[in-house]
Design goal:
heterodimer, A: alpha+beta, BirA Bifunctional Protein, domain 2, 2 domains, seven-stranded mixed β-sheet, three-stranded antiparallel β-sheet, 12 helices, 20% strand, rod-shaped, B: alpha+beta, Phenylalanyl-tRNA Synthetase, Chain B, domain 1, OB fold (Dihydrolipoamide Acetyltransferase, E2P), Phenylalanyl-tRNA Synthetase, Chain B, domain 3, 6 domains, eight-stranded mixed β-sheet, binds zinc ion, ATP binding (chain A)
Chain lengths: 345, 803
């Protein structure tokens, strides 16, 4: 019986070693160690043995059983590892293949510029004011110190709908309307929007374009406040090391009137093609609100003063992104618009 | 305004500043210098030549062989100009010279004959053709006979000069003259200026005895001065005068006309010269034109006048349109011997209207319409008389013929130094302020802490205190203004809810795969109402620049479709664009169109292209509908939106839905009609447009959380057989209504219209979810609710459970 046991053990270990899959190994386990297996049979057959041999024999069977189990478990780990290795090999993919695309669009570059400016001034306590694109001559011109027949009306040829109604030529009528509505109270607004002028469309002109203007009215608003505000704007919009300079100019709705240049963000001021070798780039027009404009809207120009400024997002986008033709903004060529996909903070 | 720096030096010492430096100073203190033009253009080796001999080229009809004395030598030059002749003094570019166009002059052989240089026209020296005197417009320029042979021609021609091109704003009419610019430069450099000295001998004959003057329209013409000059000899002006005019952008004509133009440029006062004899009556009457009256102007155009036009007449018929253009009938000509010089003040508005009516803009009208200096009207007439006496050999009659009711008082502005400093945020001392006012040549008095300023009449833009603030600031320098931020209460700032929501809409659509487009608001009358959600009377321009941009749009779709066609024509495999913008409808009580903000989109081509894993999809109706549904969900309106089959011009009759928000139509979505697609070279294309304002102004209850369900839900799937035309959305609504409180959700999960169905029928499968937030549902309850649903479907939707 001892021999029989040894033989059984050798046979089982031989099969265990021969098993090449987890499944085969499980079969071996069932065949040799299962309830109907030969080892169990041997244990069952121990009843026939003399009583004094039984403990010895029982111990022997258990040793064999444990030995076989240990070999089997060891083999199982090896086979399972091999199986996983095989699975991993089968499952490996070419990670360089393209991913499933997520389709996204983006802001039009003008909206990108406008929102950047809006947010910058919102953080300085401004609200955003909007108004109609078709305006009364009164709000577009007269309320802004441009009476009928004023020579400065030549500066902006307009699209009239009737004698008194036209497509607004700037967003300033929003300022006039806001002032009228505020009834003498302080104001701090930014007015973005579409405007229209009688220009033939070419690389630098567009009959429709965008403007963004600002207006601040309060007690003791000074020209130095305008300069300080514009400097903050220039640094946030074009870089911390931007300097600004003011040059005298003329707008009927402001007095004094100025134009603001920033030091060239491309060359830093040494002169390049962006700044036309001057080191400076003209960015916007501004000034102290003309007392006639304040008075017409019901403000006491002796008690309150204000400043206003205005700029063109097209020009800013052209400078910032190096766009050479204003018509790109209105053609909506996907190859153009989609270039403004990435964020910049 | 073109300012020759050489000419300017007659009136002001520019302290040896280089023109570019001077330009920078002028720009920084008030008047933008648009360009600094070096008139020499770097030319050298251009000299005065004396044509000694001139003969025909044996081989070429149009060429002449000239022997030219160029000072150092006599040399042969071939010349092609028709007006070349022996004895002339001419401009010669010698070998080695580089002309403005980049042309290099070399020794050459022309048809076998040697040519050592080139005889030049003024155009070849970069003078615009329209400025070259007519006699030399088609050939070489001929210098006066006494010009020194071999001299530097650039100097003789005044081309070693730099011209500043001023970009004048409408308020600075004072700088439309050399004297005005000299005042400005004087203030900047703190230099005094020199006025031209006027003295000439006049004859004993009194002007008033030969010319009568009557002004009938005093309002339009408050001042009129006439000088009479006899025995003039019309001829070419001296070279210095011609040069200065050309530098100023004026073409020389003859000595009399040139003098009037010279004084116009010098004083900013337009003048006109009449031929006294051609006036015939010895009389000048200024009056309003008679309606329908006609005049032949100097440019040989017959012009019909209206009653609001002011005319100069000889007492019988018009001889000039006042301030705008002279008449041909009284024009100075080669045989003129007696002239009348007119210097007047015409009311700006009158000249502006007249020049606009006749579409005539001239150096004269552009000055009159901004208001000339009342104190220079007479001085300019005297200056012209002096120059004509000098240059045309005339005898100036004694005195002027004058009408003068013009107000010449200076405008007084009273301002306190504190006001100036408060406005600027600066601390400029009173001494500095008065020094600036002195430099500007303003009369002033400082008393009682105030400045009493009298602005010179040339500076009619100085009217109020703020104008003085600007004068002080610009001369003091804006660089010295400190940088501060507004004081006083701080404001929170921010977007309105509407503006914030609009940004959310844009961001959502972009996240969903659409690019933002911006298209034109103006369109053609034909397209203005296409695809409009709602039409109303259109808004049209009075004077459009083209039919294509004549009318304001009532829908955003037409231009988005144009953008789609544009991109498809350029081989884009997909176009997904949206736009937010106004449409313009009818008229409000204020007389303006209703402006309504809309959002629209166009989609065509590839949607998902992930073909190596077998996923590939082109845009269809449900792609766009899904985006719209997502947008409504983002806005919290998804439970209020429904889509209903509809028909709309330009859209596919079977693939179009109206979008309803709480039972009100707010938009449309659909496929472009196949014939419309073909017209635009588009394949299957989908569009939508919604009234954005209605979406964003819809008021919702504040967001509150609903407890996460604690009890399990139970699902039931049903497949229904219905008529093929039965809308799934309606079935869904029937289910919702019948399902009661326990029905949590219902969604379509399958649609079958294949051959296994009877003709005219289809199968739609729904998945229903029942749930009770308070407790676990019993089978019984679900069965009860579910059978109600089935009953309602059968009764209301004529739907049978599929076996
Ligand atoms: Zn630069």
């Amino acid at each position: 019986m001892q021999e029989q046991l040894q033989q059984l053990k050798d046979e089982a270990i031989g099969k265990i070693q021969a098993a090449s899959t987890v499944k085969e190994l499980q079969d071996v386990r069932v065949a040799y160690l299962g309830k109907k297996g030969p080892i169990t049979d041997l244990l069952k057959g121990m009843g026939k043995l003399p009583a004094e041999e039984r403990p010895k024999m029982g111990a022997l069977v258990n040793v064999v059983r444990e030995e076989v189990t240990a070999v089997l478990d060891e083999r199982l780990v090896i086979l399972e590892d091999a199986a996983i290795a095989q699975q991993l090999e089968n499952e490996s993919i070419d990670v360089t293949l393209p991913g499933r695309p997520v389709k996204t669009g983006n802001h039009h570059p003008l909206t990108r510029v406008v929102e950047e400016i809006e947010d910058l001034f919102i953080n300085m306590g401004y609200e955003i004011a909007e108004g109609p694109e078709v305006e009364k001559d009164y709000y577009n011109f007269e309320a802004l110190n441009l009476p009928k027949g004023h020579p400065a009306r030549d500066m902006q040829d307009s699209f009239y709908i009737s004698e008194d109604i036209l497509l607004r030529t700037h967003t300033s009528p929003v300022q006039a309307r806001t002032m009228e509505a505020k009834g003498g109270e302080p104001i701090k607004i930014i007015c973005p929007g579409k405007v229209y002028r009688r220009d033939s469309d070419d690389a630098t002109h567009s009959h429709q374009f965008t403007q963004i203007e600002g207006l601040v009215i309060g007690e003791n608003i000074r020209m130095s406040d305008l300069k300080g505000t514009l400097s903050v704007f220039a640094k946030k919009m074009f870089g911390d090391d931007r300097e600004i300079r003011l040059r005298p100019s003329f707008f009927p709705f402001t007095e004094p009137s100025v134009e603001m240049d920033i030091s060239c963000f491309k060359c830093g001021g040494s002169g390049c093609n962006v700044c036309k070798k001057t080191g400076w780039i003209e960015i916007l027009g501004a000034g102290m609100v003309h007392p006639n404009v304040l008075e017409m809207a019901g403000y006491d120009s002796k008690r309150l003063s204000g400043f206003a400024f205005g700029m063109g997002p097209e020009r800013i986008a052209m400078l910032k992104y190096g766009v050479e033709d204003i018509r790109h903004f209105y053609t909506n060529d996907v190859r153009f618009v989609s270039q403004f996909h990435r964020t910049e903070v | 305004m073109l300012v020759s720096t050489k000419w300017l030096a007659d009136y002001i010492d520019t302290k040896g500043l280089a023109p570019a430096e001077l330009a920078e100073k002028i720009t920084r203190s008030g008047i933008e210098v648009d360009a600094v033009i070096d008139r020499s253009h770097g030319m050298t080796n251009v000299v005065v030549g004396h044509v000694l001999e001139c003969g025909k080229h044996p081989e070429a009809d149009k060429l002449s062989i000239c022997q030219v004395d160029v000072g150092e030598e006599v040399t042969q030059i071939i010349c092609g100009a028709p007006n070349i002749a022996a004895g002339q003094k001419v401009i010669v570019a010698r070998p080695g010279a580089v002309l403005p166009g980049g042309m290099k002059i070399k020794k050459a052989k022309l048809r076998g004959e040697e040519s050592n240089g080139m005889i030049c026209s003024l155009q070849e020296l970069a003078i615009e053709g329209k400025l070259v005197p007519k006699a030399y417009a088609e050939g070489i320029y001929v210098l006066p006979a006494d010009t020194q042979t071999g001299a530097d021609a650039l100097g003789i021609l005044g081309l070693n000069d730099t011209v500043l091109e001023l970009g004048l704003t409408p308020n600075r009419a004072d700088a439309m003259s050399m004297l005005g610019v000299a005042y400005e430069v004087g203030a900047i450099l703190s230099e005094d200026m020199k006025y031209p000295e006027i003295n000439y001998a006049s004859s004993n004959e009194v002007a008033e005895n030969v010319l009568k003057l009557r002004v009938e329209d005093v309002d339009a013409n408050p001042m009129y001065v006439a000088k009479v000059v006899k025995n003039v000899v019309i001829g070419e002006s001296p070279l210095w005068l011609q040069q200065r005019l050309m530098a100023a952008g004026v073409r020389p004509h003859n000595n009399v006309v040139d003098v009037t133009n010279y004084v116009l440029m010098e004083y900013g006062q337009p003048l006109h010269a009449f031929d006294y004899d051609r006036l015939q009556t010895g009389e000048i009457v200024v009056r309003a034109a008679h309606a329908g009256e006609k005049i032949m102007t100097l440019d040989d155009q017959e012009r019909e006048l209206q009653a609001h036009h002011l005319v100069i007449t000889n007492g019988q018929e018009p001889v000039a349109i006042a301030g705008v253009m002279g008449g041909a009938n009284s024009e100075v000509h080669d045989g003129t011997t007696t002239i009348v010089i007119e210097s007047a003040y015409f009311k700006p508005a009158s000249v502006r209207q007249t020049s606009k009516d006749h579409n005539l803009r001239s150096d004269a009208s552009s000055r009159f319409e901004k208001g000339v200096d009342p104190n220079r009207v007479e001085a300019a007439a005297e200056r012209a008389a002096q120059l004509i006496a000098e240059l045309a050999g005339g005898e100036v009659l004694q005195g002027s013929v004058k009408f003068d009711e013009l107000d010449k008082t200076q405008k007084e502005v009273i301002v306190s130094p504190d006001f100036i400093n408060n406005r600027l945020g600066m601390k400029i001392s009173l001494e500095e302020m008065t020094s600036i006012l002195s430099r500007l040549k303003f009369d002033f008095e400082a008393a009682n802490g105030m400045l009493y300023i009298k602005a010179p009449t040339r500076r009619q833009d100085i009217q109020i205190e703020e104008d003085i603030v600007e004068e002080i600031a610009r001369i003091y320098g804006y660089d010295d203004i400190p940088m501060t931020l507004p004081e006083g209460e701080s404001t929170p700032g921010g977007l309105t809810p509407y503006q914030a929501q609009r940004r959310i809409v844009r961001n959502f659509l972009e996240g969903a795969g659409l690019h933002q487009a911006i298209t034109y608001s103006l369109t053609s009358k034909e397209l203005a109402q296409s695809f409009a959600l709602e039409t109303a009377p259109v808004t049209e321009l009075l004077m459009p620049m083209s039919e294509e941009r004549s009318t304001l749009r009532q829908s955003l779709i037409p231009h988005l479709l144009e953008a789609a066609s544009y991109n498809v024509a350029r081989k884009a495999d997909s176009v997904t664009l949206f736009e937010t913008g106004s449409v313009f409808l009818g008229e409000t009580a204020e007389g303006l169109p209703h402006e309504e903000e809309h959002v629209a989109a166009v989609m065509t081509g590839k949607w998902l292209d992930h073909s190596w894993q077998g996923e590939r999809k082109t845009v269809d109706f449900f792609v766009l509908k899904g985006i719209i549904e997502g947008l409504f969900a983002k806005l919290g309106l998804d439970h209020l939106v429904t889509f209903e089959q509809t028909q709309k011009d330009g859209l596919h009759p079977g693939r179009t839905a109206s979008i309803k928000l709480a039972h009100e139509v707010v938009g449309v979505v659909g496929q472009l009609h196949p014939t419309e697609q073909k017209k635009r070279d588009l394949k299957e294309t989908y569009v939508m447009e919604m009234n954005l304002a209605k979406l964003l102004n819809f008021s919702l209850e504040p967001l509150l959380y609903t407890p996460v369900p604690r009890f399990p839900s139970i699902s039931r799937d049903i497949a229904l057989v219905v008529n093929r035309t039965q809308a799934a959305g309606e079935l869904q609504q029937i289910i919702r209504r019948a399902g009661g409180k326990l029905l949590k959700d219902v969604r379509v999960f399958d649609l079958y219209e294949g051959e296994k169905m009877e003709a005219g029928q289809k199968s739609v499968a729904f998945s229903l979810t029942y749930e009770d937030p308070e407790r676990t549902l019993t089978d019984e309850e679900v069965v009860k609710a579910h059978s109600k649903v089935l009953k309602a479907l059968e009764e209301e939707g004529n739907a049978q459970l599929r076996g």
